[in-house]
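Example 3.2
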Amino acid sequence: MAEAEGCTPECRQALLNIVDCSLHLWNGEECLDYNQLVAAIGAADPYVPPVNLCRIATGTYTGDGTLGQAIVGVGFAPKYVAIWRHKTGEGLTEDYKFEKLDKGWGDYAYAHVNTAVGQVFHYTFDNRVNSLDADGFTVDDDGADSVPNSLQVVYDYLALG
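Structure, written as tokens:
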């Protein structure tokens, strides 16, 4: 690769490497961050895909035992969310993992059920993950203080957008 005149050692290194998930490019005058460049081009060209195509968020929440608790602060509108009970130790316990997609399924969420005796079942449940929202998702206890919104139970989640 030809030496770019006036390029700093950091910029030269960035020409060859991916640094902090951002590719840097030398345009002959300055070192440009790839994401900034694509964002600038994308603003003028609708065929350039937007930067940050996939977003990931993880977190926890505590169930409130209601029919509709909004979990907010994810930072984006999820296209997929997975929810499971927060584990504090080892052992075989009955547990549910719920998954919800933004396409199809309506009010239904897919569930992986692990029983206390080690059996595994797969179901679809309604009234458990009501919706995927602009900044998170809404969970439900199905009117029976049940997962994934049982009163005072801590849950973990993974959201993709």
